[in-house]
């Protein structure tokens, strides 16, 4: 089996496994497959992810290879990943339970607005990947890596994390649950911790990053932090 074919099956396995697990958490906790919010969320995120993943496989396989790499070399970052996983699990299960017992009554317009913001966040994520070929799921320095200072990186230093916050904080509302939003509110805290750890590595190992920090002051939100 060629490396390209292995990568293709790895992509299918990761995407497929991820959405199957999400579906199991949502529909099992909801006690029914007639949980339309769950289907809407899976379709709204799964379809663009599949399209973009296929485009990367065909056009930019090296970028896709980095995106599929998930083993963090740093212990502190592994703790962040574990905390995120527990948070997602709790939030998805809570959303299903909320639907089962009808605790939350979220207006349809709020759900649609949250869906639009989530898709905006995913569009921002795609822009980051296009603008920064070194973007990776793990915190590491790649041979020959250069600092990206144009596009979104001219406004904030970590636009991918900003995109992820837009995506994840809107998921509970799309799923129709105010209660599921409570554990998801810890996600920005985890991201801030991750960024602080990551920037120590970047300052020490990526030439010119200290100067970049002086030029672009904000990490996640312009004029805020």
Radius of gyration: 18 Å
Helix and strand run: HHHHHHHHH
Range of strand content: under 5%
Dominant shape: globular
Number of domains: 1
Given this structure, which CATH class is correct?
Answer: Mainly Alpha
Q: Could you name the ranges where pLDDT drops below 50 across 5 or more consecutive residues?
A: none
Number of strands: 0
Give the biggest sheet: none
What structural class do the secondary elements suggest?
mainly alpha
Secondary structure tally, helices: 9
CATH architecture descriptor name: Up-down Bundle
Look at the structure and give the mean pLDDT. Answer: 88
CATH structural fold name: Four Helix Bundle (Hemerythrin (Met), subunit A)
Helix share bin: 55-70%
Distance between the termini: 47 Å
Describe this structure in words.
The termini are far apart. The mean pLDDT is 88. The protein has helices at residues 3-30, 36-59, 61-68, 75-101, 108-131, 159-174, 181-184, 187-205, 209-215. The longest helix is centred in the first third of the chain and has 28 residues, at 3-30. It is globular, with a radius of gyration of 18 Å. It contains nine helices and no strands. The protein has one domain (3-215): Up-down Bundle (Four Helix Bundle (Hemerythrin (Met), subunit A)), CATH 1.20.120. With 225 residues, the protein is mainly α.
């Amino acid at each position: 089996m060629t490396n390209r074919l292995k990568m293709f099956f790895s992509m299918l396995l990761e995407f497929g496994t991820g959405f199957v697990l999400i579906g199991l958490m949502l529909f099992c906790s909801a006690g029914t497959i007639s949980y339309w919010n769950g289907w809407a969320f899976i379709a709204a995120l799964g379809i663009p992810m599949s399209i973009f993943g296929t485009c990367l496989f065909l056009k930019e396989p090296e970028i896709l290879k980095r995106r599929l790499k998930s083993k963090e070399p740093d212990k502190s970052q592994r703790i962040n990943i574990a905390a995120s996983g527990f948070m997602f699990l709790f939030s998805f299960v809570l959303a299903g339970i909320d639907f089962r017992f009808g605790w939350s009554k979220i207006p349809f317009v709020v759900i649609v607005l949250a869906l639009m913001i989530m898709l905006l966040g995913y569009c921002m994520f795609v822009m980051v990947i296009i603008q920064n070929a070194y973007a990776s799921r793990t915190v590491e320095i790649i041979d020959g890596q250069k600092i990206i200072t144009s596009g979104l990186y001219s406004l904030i230093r970590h636009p991918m994390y900003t995109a992820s916050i837009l995506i994840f904080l809107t998921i509970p509302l799309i799923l129709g649950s105010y209660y599921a939003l409570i554990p998801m509110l810890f996600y920005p805290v985890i991201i801030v911790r991750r960024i602080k750890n990551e920037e120590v590595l970047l300052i020490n190992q990526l030439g010119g990053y200290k100067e970049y920090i002086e030029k672009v002051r904000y990490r996640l939100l312009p004029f805020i932090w």
